[in-house]
User: What shape does this take?
Amino acid sequence: MPNLSDLTWVQAKEYFKTSDVALLPVGSTEQHGPQNPLGTDHLIARSLAEEAAKRVDVICLPVIPFGVSVHHMQFWGTIHAPSHVLKAYVKNVCLSLKRYGIHKIVVVNGHGGNTRIILELARELRKKGLFLSVFLWWEASTRILPKVFSEPERGHAAAEETSVNMALHPHLVSKNKLLDEKPREPFAKASVGVSYGLDTADYTSSGVFGISATASVEKGKKVFEAAVKELVRHVNALKKAKIDDLLPKPLV
Assistant: This one.
């Protein structure tokens, strides 16, 4: 199934007569170290969504390339969409789809900073007859392939993300700039129960959290395939589910 943007309205009408499921990739445009492109999050999200859509024959929407990235703003090129802006954007995309009979939407989210606001929106739209699920590829990878990367390799812009970029967009990765940086403690060790509203620049000068030098194309392909298979499994289950069973329960 091609991307929605590639269809005419006549072709889109025929699709919407036959399916109530759509995939919506959402990411960000933000720093991912000196080796990765700013578009890492939305490029990976789009690739995952488009590949899964082909395998299960559902429509994939154009990617939303901006997200909640205020914590990366000290790094050049980062674009920040405030939470309320992203929420309104995704909400109106979803409500537009509902007009055409789409009641199940999988948000393929490539950026952790978007997760909270999209889940908040999912709860709101559920009350309006729309069921949103949120797929996080790095969580799927951690559970499916726990031994491929160590914890320091799974940080922001570290080996896991860099490997997926190498597999999908090798021409955009600067392999000669791979580096490792252990995040620093910007303040004295916090007391139990204390959190700070800090920025990425408080922890790292390069933008890399951990180890990226061990990234490889082979590891990236393994992660991508595992994530796609898990996304496909989810979409197939969603296609079979009755929308009434996915909506909020009545008073108990």
In short: DSSP finds nine helices and six strands in the chain. The radius of gyration is 19 Å. The first strand starts at residue 21 and ends at 26.
